[in-house]
From TrEMBL, chain A:
Signal peptide stretch: none
GO cellular component: cytoplasmic side of plasma membrane; cytosol
Gene3D superfamilies in the cross-refs: P-loop containing nucleotide triphosphate hydrolases
Annotated AAA domain residues: 2-173
Source organism of this protein record: Planctopirus limnophila (strain ATCC 43296 / DSM 3776 / IFAM 1008 / Mu 290) (Planctomyces limnophilus)
Protein name: Cobyrinic acid ac-diamide synthase
SUPFAM superfamilies: P-loop containing nucleoside triphosphate hydrolases (SSF52540)
Phylogenetic classification of the source organism: Bacteria, Pseudomonadati, Planctomycetota, Planctomycetia, Planctomycetales
InterPro entries referenced in this protein's UniProt entry, alphabetically: AAA_dom (IPR025669), P-loop_NTPase (IPR027417), ParA/MinD_ATPase (IPR050625)
GO biological process, alphabetically ordered: negative regulation of cell division
Lineage: superkingdom: Bacteria
Pfam families found in the cross-reference section: AAA_31
GO MF annotation, one: ATP binding
From TrEMBL, chain B:
Binding sites annotated in the UniProt record for substrate: S72, N122, E166, N173, Y197, Y249, V267
Lineage, uppermost ranks: Bacteria, Pseudomonadati, Planctomycetota, Planctomycetia, Planctomycetales
Keyword Acetylation set for record: yes
Database matches in NCBIfam families: Gln_ase
Pfam family, one: Glutaminase
GO molecular function: glutaminase activity
Identification of the protein by name: Glutaminase
One GO BP annotation of this record: L-glutamine catabolic process
The reaction(s) this protein catalyses: L-glutamine + H2O = L-glutamate + NH4(+)
Keyword Acetylation: yes
Source organism of the structure: Planctopirus limnophila (strain ATCC 43296 / DSM 3776 / IFAM 1008 / Mu 290)
Subunit structure: Homotetramer.
Length: 259, 331
């Protein structure tokens, strides 16, 4: 049975897409078949981190939602470019991306007409089945909308990303409450962009007391990430960086967690 | 409501509906009704299924948004409106509650009382429409539309083209109204009642609406989505009883025996079914069997009833099986 992991943040700019893409790559590198779907249809971006050229994509998630293709048609194998050194024809590891369209007309149509979230759910289940995935990571739109709630509802693990920032802290409380009402099996809080010199124990205490949820990992604010500017996978370029080590801890935690 | 929708979208019952839909949509038995010209324009491919629970979860599949005219599915609801307006005893003095064993459009009345046999056949429905109160005709139409809107949880409208088509071709219904007027079973405003009847049959709904209407009855008359009362709870049992005994044209006896769920069908291809206390089922597929019921709709109800022990006289704990699948946790 595949495990569904949604990464979510209440506000934008928390590093959600970077975290998701790198986490997916680390899980795949551990020898699994992993899919990453960009359900942030209004402001897609995770393909940039994977350096996936949208021009090479005939179909995107939008096409599936409008009934123009099957969900499988919108999935692209990016194993070679993200992991490399894979035995030709090997079933594992594999990494797939299902991008959202960058076409402004497509985005406008979604905003104007919406889409059937139940169809999105069918697509996610079909994707797991046809690609024989071990893990499906869902990169969600920040805030709370239908697609976010659906992702939360079907997730085995919800990774909530926030910065040590009061607005993030208060907003995340809303998502935590919704996740509780949707009976999420496992809620992992990731505090990202933690500046050097802050009292980490204080942050952990604040989050765990406030949300009654465990802080799975604290990821440091770093210049290397800023310089990379989402142009590639951080964990590939800085394999020994504390940020990469933190994500590895998270990846191991997710792999070991029981359903 | 948003949380409910998300739970519904992810609920395993959706897979059951998808499987049911995939198998039954390939069945092209039956034919589309053509006695009203506008009905003949429906697509034989259309097939929508919707379930709405009494706690407001809605799970749907296929063409559940496709609009069609409500036709005879309207009849039990109008019966409820008449009971609310006049009380049961008065309504029963004008229309009986016995199954006929005759076709829905038979021109036949109870020889002793001169009443139509029941409100589910055309003559009974016309007599029922005659009972709807209002200071004038527009107010009666308005009250009728408001009543259906309360059940659906949205404002409903009449398809004027179908209404005109019904009116132009409704000679048999007109004959029934004249016959009943002859026996003093209808008021002097019987022409108005006929117009109201044609209007009620021409209201546009979809499978989603029918499931909500069914769920409203299943929920004792309270719409589970809007929490607005559509009918007094003490009158719901009368609608369900008449649907159980007479709801499926002259297949009603076998339906009660095999499926055991109060239901009403219409010649446009709609079926509403009610599992009291549990959920409403809305179906749409315009291919009809020889009795006038949706072929795919009947088969879908039969399968759901059997699979989840929904028959009213099932000895096991009815409905618990199906409600388990509304929980998205059970994937």
């Amino acid at each position: 049975m595949a495990k569904i992991i949604s990464t979510h943040s209440f506000r934008g700019g928390t590093g959600k897409s970077n975290t998701t893409a790198n986490l997916a790559t680390l899980i795949a590198k551990a020898g699994y078949r992993v899919g990453v779907i960009d359900t942030d249809i209004q402001s897609p971006g995770i393909h940039v981190v994977f350096q996936f050229d949208q021009k090479k994509a005939k179909y995107a998630l939008n096409d599936y939602l409008w009934g123009r293709c099957s969900i499988h048609d919108a999935a692209y194998d990016i194993t070679e470019q993200c992991i490399g050194n894979v035995v030709p024809g090997a079933l594992r590891p594999r990494l797939y991306i299902i991008p959202s369209s960058l076409n402004s007309g497509e985005i406008a149509r979604i905003l104007r007409e919406g889409y059937d979230v139940a169809k999105l759910n069918d697509g996610l289940q079909e994707l797991i089945s046809t690609l024989d995935l071990d893990y499906l990571l869902i990169d969600t739109h920040p805030g709370v909308n239908e697609e976010t709630l659906l992702s939360i509802a079907i997730s085995d693990v919800l990774v909530l990303i926030l910065r040590p920032d009061n607005q993030d802290f208060q907003g995340t409380a809303v998502t935590v409450e919704l996740a509780r009402r949707l009976d999420i099996p496992e809620l992992l809080v990731v505090v990202n962009k933690v500046p050097e010199g802050v009292d980490e124990n204080l942050i952990i205490e604040q989050v765990e007391n406030g949300y009654q949820a465990e802080v799975a990992v604290m990821l440091p604010l770093n210049n290397e990430m800023s310089r990379l500017g989402s142009c590639g996978l951080f964990t590939n370029q800085y394999p020994n960086h504390p940020f990469t080590q933190g994500l590895k801890t998270l990846a191991e935690r997710i792999i070991k967690s029981q359903k | 409501m948003l949380l409910g929708r998300m739970k519904s979208a992810a609920a395993p019952i959706r897979d059951v509906l998808k499987d049911l839909h995939t198998r039954l949509v390939a069945n092209y038995e039956g034919r589309i009704a053509d006695y009203i010209p506008e009905l003949a324009t429906a697509s034989p491919d259309s097939f929508g299924i919707a379930l709405c629970t009494t706690d407001g979860q809605v799970v749907e599949y296929g063409d559940y948004k496709t609009s069609f005219t409500i036709q005879s599915v309207s009849k039990p609801f109008m019966f409820g409106l008449a009971i609310g307006d006049h009380g049961l005893d008065h309504v029963l003095s004008k229309v009986g509650v016995e199954p006929t064993g005759e076709a829905f459009n038979s021109i036949v009345l109870d020889e002793v009382s001169n009443r139509p046999y029941n409100p589910m056949v055309n003559s009974g429905a016309i007599a029922t429409a005659d009972l709807v109160k209002g200071k004038d005709y527009p107010e009666r139409v308005k009250r009728m539309l408001e009543m259906f809107s309360r059940y659906c949880g949205r404002e409903v409208f009449v398809d004027n083209t179908v209404f005109m088509s019904e009116r132009m071709t409704g000679h048999r219904n007109r004959a029934m109204a004249h016959l009943m007027r002859n026996f003093d079973m209808m008021s002097e405003k019987f022409e108005e009642a006929l117009e109201l009847y044609f209007q009620q049959c021409s209201i546009l709904v979809n499978a989603h609406d029918l499931s909500v209407m069914g769920a409203t009855l299943a929920n004792g008359g309270l719409n589970p989505l809007t929490k607005i009362r559509a009918i007094e709870s003490e009158n719901v049992k009368y609608l369900l009883s008449i649907m159980m005994s007479c709801g499926m044209y002259d297949y009603a006896g076998e339906w009660a025996f095999r499926v055991g769920i109060p239901a009403k069908s219409g010649v446009a291809g709609g079926i509403v079914a009610v599992v009291p206390g549990v959920l409403g089922i809305g179906l749409y597929s315009p291919l009809l069997d020889i009795k006038g019921n949706s072929v795919r709709g009947v088969k879908a109800c039969q399968e759901l009833s059997q699979k989840f022990s929904l028959h009213a006289f099932e000895s096991s704990a009815a409905a618990s099986k199906i409600l388990e699948l509304f929980s998205f946790k059970k994937r």
